[in-house]
Amino acid sequence: SMHKQWAAVDDYIAGLFPSDPVLDAVLRATRDAGMPQINVSPVQGRLLHVLALACNARNILEIGTLAGYSAIWMARALPADGKLISLEFDPKHADVARANIVRAGLADRVDVRLGTALDILPQLAAEGAGPFDLIFIDADKINLTTYFDWAVCLARPGSLIVVDNVIRGGDVLDAASDDAGLQGVRRFNEAIAADPRVTATILQMVGSKGHDGLALAVVRG
Ligand code: SAM
């Protein structure tokens, strides 16, 4: 099937790079904890790492930690005095993530904040956290447009905002869907395409995670 071929090519790409025992252990810990395996794929994690390097990120925000897999990929691109804040509302996910981050040697750079993103984002703004150079949005889809608005508030001109799961196997074409998450994605895609605060694109992707996509937006001056 096509999906098998996409996964095989993803394995081929991942296999070109040196093996990574720390990240393999993170994925094992996610499985062993009985958590959903909804982290980005290895190839997508590497993309986040490359993007963090390309934008010289010193200050990164993530919405949706899970077990810390994508956070570790991004935090590895930080300089020694850089910071990554990741938001997670499930205490078990946050615990597993913190343990994984310690194991990855990144505890000094990564802060997992426990709570609902809609509560923590205004707190970050009130604290004067940021501006964040890179923001990765990967939590519930119902509030996607609100998360994106907060991301723009917490960014500076030139910041990069990356949003996962905006294609959903093509389900995004279904305007009549009664899936609230899918409608959240549809509203979001329409909103960023028309948003004068950013220059954006939406990429569909295939791989070990099937068919989905990323939105990429650079905040304008
Ligand atoms: N970014 C992670 C990775 O690639 O390794 C995967 C994140 S997973 C797709 C989404 C995470 O967001 C889950 O751990 C879930 O508990 C968390 N989450 C969902 N809704 C949230 C909310 N409203 N506030 C904070 N976290 C939320």
Give a written overview of the molecule:
This protein has 221 residues and is an alpha/beta fold. It contains eight helices and seven strands; from the N terminus they run αααβαβαβαβαβαββ. It has helices at residues 2-16, 21-32, 42-54, 69-75, 91-103, 117-127, 144-153, 180-193, and strands at residues 59-63, 83-88, 110-114, 132-137, 155-164, 198-207, 210-219. Strands 3-2-1-4-5-7-6 form a seven-stranded mixed beta sheet, with helices on both faces. The mean pLDDT is 97. Bound molecules: S-adenosylmethionine. S-adenosylmethionine (SAM) binds at residues 38-40, 64-66, 69-70, 87-90, 93, 116-117, 138-140.
Helix content: 40-55%
Strand content: 15-25%
CATH H level, superfamily name:
Vaccinia Virus protein VP39
Q: Low-confidence parts lasting 5 or more residues at pLDDT below 50?
A: none
Question: How many DSSP helices?
Answer: 8
Short structural description:
By secondary structure, the protein is α/β, with parallel strands linked by helices. The chain has 8 helices and 7 strands, in the order αααβαβαβαβαβαββ. Strands 3-2-1-4-5-7-6 form a 7-stranded mixed beta sheet, with helices on both faces.
